[in-house]
Amino acid sequence: MTEVRTGEPMAATFTDAGLRSAVARIARVPRLLVACDYDGTLAPLVDDPAFATPLPEAAAIIRELAALPQTTVAVVSGRSLRDLAALSRMPSEVQLVGSHGTEFDVGFAARIQPEISALRTRLGQAVLELARRHPGLRLEQKPASIAVHTRAVGPEVAAEVLDAIRSGPATWPGVYVTTGRDVVELSVFAPDKGSAVDELRTQHSASAVIFLGHDTTDEQVFSKLQGPDLGIKIGTGDETSAHFTVPDPDAAVQVLALLAEARRRWLYGERAVPIERHTMLGNGRTLALVTPDAKITWLCHPRPDSPAVFGALLGDGSAGYMSVTPLVGRGRGPQDAMPLGQRYRRGTMTVETRWSGLAVTDTLLDEEPGTVLVRVLTGSATVRLTFAPRPEFGQVPTQLEPVGETLRVFGSNDPMTLIAPGVAWQIVEDGGHHTATATVDLRALGGTVALELRLGGDGRLGHGPTSDPPVLTSSTDDELREPTEKAAAGGEPPTGRTGAWPTSATGAAGTPVDHHHVIAAHVASVQARQAQTEREWREWCAALRLPNRARELVLRSALTLRALCYRPTGAIIAAGTSSLPEEIGGVRNWDYRYCWLRDAAMSAQALVQLGSADEADALLRWTRRVIEGTAGHPERLHPLYSVDGNELGAEAVIETLPGYAGSRPVRIGNAANRQVQLDVFGPVADLIAHLADLRGGLEPWQVALLNDMVEAVSRRWHEPDHGIWEARIPPRHHVYSKVMGWLTIDRALRVGERHGIPVDPGWAALRDKIAQDVLERGWHPEVGAYTVAYDHPEMDASSLWIGLSGLLPADDPRFLATVLAVEAELRSGPIVYRYRWDDGLPGREGGFHICSAWLIEAYLRTGRRADAEELFEQMIACAGPTGLLPEQYDPVTEHGLGNHPQAYSHIGVITCALLLDQS
Higher-confidence residue: 138 or 689? Predict the structure, then answer.
């Protein structure tokens, strides 16, 4: 349905697709102003205005809307503010504006200037005399005006009254006349509901306004609406500037109820899938997340730190997704039951989701020039497919255009094409974007259909290592290609296109082509490339040295870490997502799609411990390139960088996304980029030391990199910093950062000793100096343990590194005391919190799996193997059904929290399993 802003209003009903789409669209704005007229909108028109009360349903839905966050509700009426409040009985959360926008508060009358007040008195006397001559007129007294209601008199009397007013009081200087339906109002101020709504918009910083009105004066508002605003006229027949009209107040209530439902769903999320139940696809170039029912809700392109193409993970479907839904029964309705199961194919990043009669197999391929997402549907079921790409987190309009066997996506900087032979798509407009749906009978198409989403490249059918199947051409194809050629020339593709498989087709030589053969050839191409990708993953896995303890989970953790590697540059990201909350509904939502030097080095080291060193080599080369950008000052390294090694831009908030389960804000970028974190050199040095032990030595450039780490520590170890947890508070002398400075020098000395590499004679003295400083100043005598920072009594799980690093021997009483203190203050069942001190942010967070892993290692070092085994089993039990772990775990709700999957968590699984196997 087309929206209009002319004298021909679009009559609409509750089921009207255009109205529903418009309401759904405005429900998603960050800050919404809902404004309504009273009479004829919330309250039915009655003969006596003194008895105009709101519909009970209207009052209820207005209260419901007013209770929603980031939502302001106002009633703007021609009535006096006092009468409006008495009749409407609206709660204080609803802002009332009376007298056609002139009365914002009850003190309005007292502020009227004397000469204006005298005019109002004279006006009242004149109208009262008129009413005496015409029984049946009803007068409504207001502080700055008087309304004459003619509904109870005949049309001849009404016309006579109107003529008397126009020839009398209406001619007085300073008197303003407003004519409505069966009412004439004379005011000593110029009434303007439009200005009143603009004032409300400014007061509440509204992103958009939805206004529902009945009266003639409401046109003042409709005419001023702009951009994303929405105007709805109540009542038909009159010309209006509103976008839509509905017949009566009952229909207005239905619109408001639809708005409340859509707004609530957008603000709080739609049945958010538990974080740990998401499964990751990865190809070394980007990654995607799949829900247990095969809905792809997260995919960034072209890199993992790029904007999302599918972002429904951080809100609702308006942020983009791709789904498969089995249809069952005679009515072919969606199947309510969950799938039978979801699993990885062993040793790969391919995911299988199974229903009875349907299997969906998802893989991310890495093929020049970009990523390819393939979905293979196998079985006998009839399925509903939905393709709703939303590039740039849904912030730019997206259009889809069927061209032969493909759907082309317009709205992205990079080419994006969905190839789906045999699928007839229906394209609909959805909140300013296009969404494609299709119903596919797998049995009729030979039991298998392949969908191939090409992110980058030309989108040719069958593009890949196998030969192209025949390409169909027909008059239908030619017709569909024409709009695309027009778009390429600068025009816009039309809406409402349907991509249907041609009933007759020819190959390039003009010979008939069986479209079933084309479908089968495309399926064969996709499956062959899928198998090749799986073969590469399995070959990598076969070279790993896996422990016996939790062998399959360790393998999955290793695959996860490798999938978090960005192969084009060697960077390793900390997690696959942004803004998954550390508290449901809270503000602790961060973007982890970048390469932290610390996290990346720990990830590479875990893989080195399993026998894979290529990732470490690639990361260290990336680190070397980043250091080259510091002009010889490695101590100036930032804690994190984008995957291409560049500095991050400013941290920003995407206000159009409601966040996972309503957890806002959704952040892009990370302000920790500008922090000082002096611990980052230690993990890099530790990684180089492990690599040297694995290979029996180092290459010259690796030695130079190790020297850079030592140089950085020597220049800055004595400074305060923000620490490993990146608290947004002033820097402190963190114990963990000092220990990592010591570890940097210690590992460099160890490499020199074990592998005959020359070292600076002053390094040993520097190591001892740092050790003396942290051992003396990091100990808190009143607490009886090493705490978070010098002169601060709060415990912190990172203080366990006083012993885990080797700085203190395992049997040192100070280390033993610190282990006990961490256990007592920070452990809660299966999880260990990183700290409980005030970090300057509201809310709480879950426990960290990496902190649990540190305590497990501390238990093993101090002879508490039974406790280590128990906590390890509890930790791995927190993993999702496919073996993935987010950053945190809430022992109360027994669900994961934070970004997912998190490198730290899988590092912990690998490290602890290896230690338990060795001890």
Answer: 689
The residue among 368, 364, 532 whose CA lies nearest residue 456 is 368
Say which amino acid occupies 291.
Answer: T
3 state DSSP class of 516: helix
Q: Are 272 and 661 in contact (CB under 8 A)?
A: yes
Q: Virtual CA dihedral for 217, 222, 225, 231, nearest 10 degrees?
A: 130
Secondary structure of residue 610 in the 3-state scheme: coil
Separation CA 472–CA 469 (nearest Å): 9
Give which of 414, 393, 419, 420 is closest to 456, Cα–Cα: 414
On average, the pLDDT of the chain sits at 88
**CA 67 from chain center: how many Å?**
23
Contact 189, 198 (CB under 8 A): no
Distance CA 479, CA 477 (A): 5
Instruction: Please say whether the dihedral angle defined by the alpha carbons of residues 588, 594, 597 and 602, taken in this order, is positive or negative.
Output: positive
Phi, psi of 416 (to 5 degrees): -145, 125
Q: Which residues pair with 902 in a beta bridge?
A: 575
Residue with tokens 């009559």: 11
Contacts 24+ apart (CB under 8 A), 716-721: 716/635, 716/678, 717/678, 717/741, 717/770, 718/773, 719/676, 719/678, 720/676, 721/675, 721/676, 721/677, 721/678, 721/679
pLDDT score of 465 more than 50: no
- Nearest residue to 887 (alpha-carbon basis) of 637, 511, 666, 591: 591
Among 765, 111, 367, 91, smallest CA distance to 99 is for 111
**Can you say how many angstroms the Cα of residue 57 is from the centroid of all Cα atoms in its chain?**
33
Are the beta carbons of 424 and 476 closer than 8 angstroms? no
Instruction: Write the pLDDT tens digit of every residue in 82-104.
Output: 888 889 889 889 999 988 777 77
CA distance 704 to 384: 57
Helix runs in 756-862, H state only: 763-777, 801-804, 813-826, 849-861
* Whether 314 contacts 253, CB under 8 Å: no
| Tokens read off for 624 | 């070397």
If 0-12 CB within 10 Å is exposed, 13-18 middle and 19+ buried, where does residue 455 land? buried
**DSSP 3-state assignment of 604?**
helix
How far apart CA 910 and CA 855 sit, in angstroms, is 14
Amino acid identity at 271: R
Q: Quick check: 547 and 595 in contact, CB under 8 A?
A: no
**Contact of 854 with 800, CB cutoff 8 Å:** yes
CA distance 749 to 767: 9
The answer to whether the CB of 576 falls within 8 A of the CB of 899 is yes
Cα gap 268→173, rounded to integer Å? 54
Q: Cα(305)–Cα(575) distance, rounded to whole angstroms?
A: 10
Q: Half-sphere exposure (CA, 13 Å, Cβ side) for 103?
A: 27
Distance CA 606, CA 562 (A): 10
**Residue carrying structure tokens 């229906």:** 426
Q: Would you mind telling me the total number of residues written for the chain in this entry?
A: 919
CB 670 within 8 A of CB 639: no
**CA angle (112 as vertex; 111, 114 as ends), nearest 5:** 120
Is the pLDDT at 740 greater than 60, yes or no? yes
How many CA atoms does the CB half-sphere of 737 hold within 13 Å? 24
Residue 684 corresponds to which tokens in the numbers above?
């890099």
Band of the pLDDT at 624, cuts 50, 70, 90? Answer: very high
Which pTM was predicted? 0.82
Task: Give the model confidence (pLDDT) of 56-87 as tens digits.
Answer: 999 999 999 999 989 999 999 988 888 888 89
What per-residue confidence (pLDDT) applies to 334? 57
Q: What is the pLDDT of residue 337?
A: 63
* Helix and strand counts by DSSP (H, E) for the chain: 22, 42
CA 870 to each of CA 440, 639, 873: distance values in angstroms, whole numbers, following the listed order: 49, 34, 5
Q: How far is CA 536 from the centre of its chain?
A: 32
